[in-house]
Amino acid sequence: AQRRQLCCGQSELDLHLIRPSGALGDYGACPAGCDAAQCAELVDDNAATCRQTGADCAYANRAPEWGSVGRLDDPRLDVDDVRGQGPEIVSIDNPGDGAYRVLAHYCLDRIDEPTLASVEIFEMGVLIHTTAPEALVEGDAWTAATLVRSGGAWQVVAPAGVVEAAPAGLCSQ
Q1: Is 37 strand, coil or helix?
Q2: How many CA atoms, within 13 angstroms, populate the side-chain half-sphere of residue 157?
Q3: What gap in Å lies between CA 146 and CA 56, rounded to an integer?
Q4: Contact (Cβ atoms closer than 8 angstroms) between residue 75 and residue 64
Q5: C-alpha 125, offset from chain centre
Q6: Fewer beta carbons within 10 Å, N or C terminal of the chain?
Q7: How far is the C-alpha of 59 from the C-alpha of 79, rounded, in Å?
């Protein structure tokens, strides 16, 4: 409900980075004895005890623990735009090998019409891939690309318009 009140733009899209073999909407849980603020920290003050471990890096899990304790190999949501102007930015500085999915989820439609989503992928500050715009309606989850990491190199695999219905309640978590 709070996300709906922070509006002003025409639509609200969320960017998701899913770790290898992970699922959209798997935000994990904050461990017992930790509060939400500790689990969302972008520093390592509580890394040994208070890291949310879900497979989906997005607004509901901005800095998940994905491997070694600490932030070195973990993604983070750097920018979460709720006003509808974009962009949203997810970064991962030292990823492990595997296939990572990049999704755009059309979370909230304020104008009752499709919106166009596009994704730009950068490596070390250099643009390496731009998707064609994809028309989405509220509830759509679009796999914009799969990033395959192997031996320190990236390969971008861009699926042709893979759009699916997002899990129920994904925007309200």
Answers
A1: helix
A2: 10
A3: 14
A4: yes
A5: 18
A6: N
A7: 9
pTM: 0.87
pLDDT digits (tens, 9 = 90+) for 20-74: 999 999 999 888 888 888 877 767 677 677 888 899 999 888 889 898 777 788 8
Residues in the chain: 173
Are 154 and 123 in contact by the 8 Å Cβ rule? The answer is yes
Which helix (H) or strand (E) element contains residue 2?
A: helix 2-5
166, 105 Cβ separation under 8 angstroms:
yes
* Residue 116, φ and ψ in degrees, nearest 5: -95, 130
Give the side-chain half-sphere CA count within 13 A for 1: 0
CA distance 161 to 142: 7
DSSP 8-state secondary structure symbol assigned to residue 61: B
